[in-house]
Amino acid sequence: MLKAITGTKDILPTEMQKWNCLEKLVKEIFTSFNYKEIRTPIFEETALFARSIGEETDIVGKEMYTFLDKGQTSLTLKPEMTASVVRAFIEHSLSKHQPLNKLFYISPMFRQEKPQAGRLRQFHQFGGEALGSTSPLLDAEIIIIVYKILFKLGLKDLAVKLNSLGIPSSRENYKNLLRDFLNNSKDKLSQDSRKRLDQNILRIFDSKLESDQEILKDAPFLIDFIDEESKADFEIVKTLLNQSNIPFEIDPKLVRGLDYYTKTTFEIVSGKVGSQSALCGGGRYDLLVEQLGGEPTPGVGFAAGMERILLACENEKVLDLPHEKINLYIVKIDKNLSEKVFELAINLRDNYQIPLKENEKYQNGVISLNIPFKVEFDYLDRSVKSQMRVANNLNTNFVLFVGGEEYNTGKVILKNMSTGEQFPIAIEKCKDEIYNQFLSSYSDP
Length: 445
Ligand code: AMP
Fold this sequence. Notes:
Blueprint lengths: L12 H20 L3 E2 L5 E3 H8 L4 H6 L2 E3 L5 E4 L4 H10 L2 H4 L3 E10 L11 E10 L4 H18 L4 E7 L3 H16 L7 H9 L10 H7 L11 H16 L5 E2 L11 E9 L7 E7 L3 H4 L7 E7 H10 L10 E7 L5 H14 L1 E2 L7 E2 L2 E2 L3 E2 L2 E3 L6 H10 L2 E7 L1 H5 L2 E6 L5 E5 L3 H12 L4
Parallel strand pairs: 1-5, 7-8, 12-17, 12-18
Antiparallel strand pairs: 2-4, 3-4, 5-6, 6-11, 7-9, 9-10, 10-11, 13-16, 14-15, 18-19, 19-20
The structure holds adenosine monophosphate (AMP).
The site of adenosine monophosphate has 17 residues, from strand 6, strand 10, strand 11 and helix 12.
């Protein structure tokens, strides 16, 4: 049997309601902060990720899905979005139109990691990037946006971890100090950490090994060596988070794996998703645009893992959505009325919509689609009894019986499934009548 590739997952119809709900919430919250959606291709030239994320990171070193196309160009399925957003920002000169670009995305990502709960090879992230300002207000805004999304989902077991990496010059001094400190215990460090000592020393803090962590216990922390400007910005971020009632803790070991981060860095972890506990991570990257060939442009952003967030929701028993309803199920009493029922269903679906409430009319800057009037009937020539069973399972608001004696006298019977009331209506007026009955009973879409 052919199966989905290890580390990829089908999102089945039963799970889609939660995905749609999460995506809607993401769009709503970003829109309320005036972020605009951006979509970029699923693959890019490999050089983009190598140059931005850094050759020595796990992502570039071990995890990318890279292949040669027929023209012998090395392409990579995107492992993260910031590099692609920045590439598009430079390519389309977005800063010419406005000095500050606030962008958000929802997209699949690809990393060849060892699959486990909460760690996939194709997964989905939403995230935001604000390009064009060094203001720490944006650092705080980015954290508030993602916290708000998680909080609105109902997640409670959250910890916001915050650190500042300073600017590169202060970091370089610190790296030398840390190297001197770790060289004293070099022999006791794990092989991976020893490699990082020369290549990406800050990443040693990410080591999961207790022996490494034991050595790091007395290591100097970067936060104590950052420059004055970074310190002042960090104070502002902390004040703004306090003002917005976002609980956070300073984690001096939070260094994150990517080379392009400067100043603020943060992560939100859930106590409820096991070893893969990070729901999102982000920070400031004031040097990336320049590094990729653009005009020097500061930036700050984050990415959040949607599978992990939904896993946390499941574990905290939140985002428990009611079963989706349909509005009308047409029960065919006579099999030879199939064509009539088919036409009636088409007509009802075409001509009637569930009215939007005033505050639902404009979403994400576009007129949102009307909510369709959901109509279903039997295609399998089932008995009336089994059609009723289906109608009940579909959680329908109304059932329409077509056929039998009433039909011969020009009538059909409409049943309100929540009150049990049923009454005959004339066939020629039945569409408006069904819809009016529905509207008078309708409270919630
Ligand atoms: P990163 O881009 O590595 O900072 O990751 C940001 C977020 O994406 C993480 O906090 C996770 O929630 C999620 N994430 C990263 N890698 C994976 C993966 N392999 N599978 C599922 N989620 C992931």
